[in-house]
Structures are given as C-alpha cells and as structure tokens.
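B., you asked whether I could sanity-check this one before it goes into the benchmark set. Here's the sequence:
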Amino acid sequence: MPNNQTYRYKKGLSVSYRVAGEGKPLVLLHGWGSSGEVMWPLAGQLSDLRQCYVLDLPGFGNSPVPDRPWSVDDYADLVEQFITDRELGETDLLVHSFGGRIALKLCARPEGKTLIGKVLITGGAGMKPKRSASYYLKKYTAKLLKAPFLLLPPALREKGLAKLRSTSLWKVLGSGDYRQLSGVMRETFVKTVTEYLEPCLPEIPHEVLLLWGQNDRATPLYQARRMEEGIEQAALVVVDHAGHYAFLDRPSHFASIARAFFEE
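And here's what the prediction gave me:
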C-alpha cells in the first residue's frame, strides 16, 4: 500500500496507515491474516463522505510484529490511542472479521462511548462458534500430547513443547491459520481467538450495522444474529451472493449500503 504514513505507538512500535478523503473520520480495520490494503478500495468508495484512516494492525501488512503477544484489549488500546493522539474526535468504525473483535472491545469501554460514533461490522469475529465433534477430538488429543511436558522444569518443558509443535501430528491438529504462524503472532492468535466477547454486547450503546455475507463460512450468520440480539441498537443486513469478504464479493452493493448508513 503506497504513500503510507506512520504512527508511533508505545515503545516505538510503528503502525502503518493511509488516509483518504474528507469529512468526519472513519477508521477501517482489517481481518486476521490480511492488511489495510484489502480495505483500501472500500475507503476509496467512501472517501467523498468520510476521511478514511486505513490501518495495518501490528503484525500485519507494513506494521511490525509487537514485542510480546497481544490480546484483543491490546489492539483496542492501540486504536483508542490512535484516535486520541490524532485528535480525531468522535470517530466512526468500519471493521472486518478480526477487526470486529477490536470494535466490540472498544465500544464496550467507557472511553469508547465518547470516542466512537457509528459502527459497521462485516463478517465480525468474537462470538463463540458451534463446534463439531472432530474439533473436540483434535482439542483433547492436543491436550493429552502436551500433558507430560507440563510436568517438566520450565527449560525442559519449552524445549519439549517446541519439538512437539514441529511434529507432523501436531501440525495436523492445529488450524490453518495457526500452522502458518510462529512466535509472537502464534501466541497472539491463541490469545485473541480463545476470548469470546458476548459479555461486551450489552455494554455497547452505539448504532451498529451488521452487514453480512449470506454465504459467510468463517463467521456464519448465526454469529451475526447473536450480535444483533445482544447489542441494543444493532441491525442486521444480509448481502446475497457474498461470503466472508462481502465488500469484495459485491463491492458496489456493499458500498451503497455503507454510504446510506454513514450518511444518516
């Protein structure tokens, strides 16, 4: 993503972002394994209506990996501080997938009630998924494999666990996202995806549009309906013939709905 600007966060962490348009600020947050680049065309479609800030979250795109594993709260801290330091005032959010986790956390905070205006969530993560029997088989097999190493002294434990993680069996047990990660981002993935955010929903007073792909398999429609039920001012709109990336599958249709929401 060319013409990036840099925001210096805590301990010198450089966060890459790009700005387009004029008007009330709108922060766009991407999903896990993606970057701000995927959100940039959407920002272009809204740039005559909002001043769009498209971030590369730490560990993605042009923003470096944090110096330690981050939680959802850490990412929410970053977005809150970015809005404050840039003196944006009340800021709207448009978030996808993992960005949805961050939005839910931020909006449920006391500070979020004044910092954040309208919120559009598409394919948002954070709800506890329905799990298959095969998932639980993998989960408890992994626990059994790890159990003997947890009895060892710390140095031997970490050495043993590292060897276990390198085995083909362990790689089969992990998710696709997990297998592609290592170090800080692998631990960040585990910390973030294992936190379920249903408790945040009743604390969110904002006007929230849930704009969801009908065929979303990563965050199915039942999760959107759970958000709609839990957030007082939420409304769900389903995009036909679209999946997890509804804004890419049907860009003009998605943008027209987003414009109508933010124009009100």
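One thing to flag: The longest helix spans residues 72-85. Otherwise nothing jumped out at me.
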